[in-house]
Write a structure and sequence with these properties.
- One of its GO terms (biological process) is DNA biosynthetic process.
- Helix content is 43%, strand content 19%.
- The chain is an alpha+beta fold.
- It has one domain.
- A two-stranded antiparallel ribbon has the order 1-4.
- Strand 2 and strand 3 form a beta hairpin.
- It is elongated and about 50 Å long.
Amino acid sequence: MCPLTVRLLLNMYTTQKLQVKWNSNISPKFDVTNGVRQGGVLSPLLFSVYIDELLEKLKRNGIGCFIGHHFVGALGYADDIILLCPTFSGLKKMIKICEEYAEEHSILFNGNKSK
């Protein structure tokens, strides 16, 4: 990635502050220390860049299924990851890879959104 682009992104994300408005109350400003902007135009791209290594690890693992003539194990879009596997044991292996990656990269996956 171009150094100028990296500096621009760092500036956008290291200087952001938020306030919460609830009813007629407004909180003091506070720093945002992690994540990407919800609904931000760049957010899906930044997520893809950040999560690409995980998707490659899952692909190299060789666990997944065929959809037509295409072998698919994991798909990532916007801020979602889909794991596809016909067996429970294979899916458990994929989840283990995701858990290890999450721990290494300080990522929190929302298990409540998983089915």
